[in-house]
Amino acid sequence: MGTKRKYLDIYEEIARGIRNEQFQPHVLLPSEHELTSMYETSRETIRKALNLLSEHGYIQKIQGKGSVVLETGRFDFPVSGLVSFKELAEQTGSTSETHVHSLTLSTLPPALQHVLEVQETEQVWEVKRQRKMDGENIVLDIDYLLERWVPGLTEDICADSIYNYVENKLKLVISFARKEITIEKPTEEDKQLLDLYPDSSIAVVRNYVYLDNAELFQYTESRHRSDKFRFIDFARRHR
């Protein structure tokens, strides 16, 4: 096989082995030296194949150790819809658990006042929740909700579903949201509260959520383990 094609063939063979669980999740792949011998090729060709595996989410390279096989099952997270974590877990048939790390009611610093379009005396809930799915902490949600729209918030409500409380108890209509998605380095808080690999990145979804009267009532920073989610949308070309 030609050199240009060989690294692709190696990539496809290893990727197939990962999908078929010939290579188990969380286990190191054979070393570059071992793969060079196995495939009778150069180290440069092996590195190209490994880089491609990393780019496609099959492995995580760890300096000084090697390449760890990642779980290939990712959760599809719709970009265009408003889906709660509880609803996502139910749709995927996954076991889920929410731990409320903190719940406070206070005024906000100027930067967040601007984000939520509130006065400096406005009372706002800050909720931090660890989201566990199938036994792993994979999402850290940081929510800010205006107390005048969402009174009486408790840890039990936050551990269950804030949207269920807003829609069914408070009888408010959640209408639409503006979303921003960025890939960022994990913060110290991410490292503390999420189950991360070394050198992992975080997919951060910032939601600005509005009621049917076009009032902004919630701002959320949802910090996802990037190897566990695939963000999807449906697009139609208009002519």
Automatic annotation (TrEMBL):
Q: Which GO terms describe its molecular function?
A: DNA binding; DNA-binding transcription factor activity
Highest taxon listed in the record's lineage: Bacteria
Q: Which Gene3D superfamilies match?
A: Chorismate lyase-like, Winged helix-like DNA-binding domain superfamily/Winged helix DNA-binding domain
Pfam families assigned to the protein according to its UniProt record, in alphabetical order:
GntR, UTRA
Q: Which residues form the HTH gntR-type domain?
A: 4-72
Which biological process annotations from GO are given for this protein?
A: negative regulation of DNA-templated transcription
The answer to whether the entry has keyword Transcription is: yes
Q: Cross-referenced PROSITE patterns, in alphabetical order? A: HTH_GNTR
Could you tell me which SMART domains the record lists for this protein? HTH_GNTR, UTRA
- The answer to whether keyword Nucleus applies is no
UniProt keyword terms in alphabetical order: DNA-binding, Repressor, Transcription, Transcription regulation
Write down what this protein is called.
Trehalose operon repressor
Q: Per the UniProt entry, what species is this protein from, by scientific name?
A: Marinococcus luteus
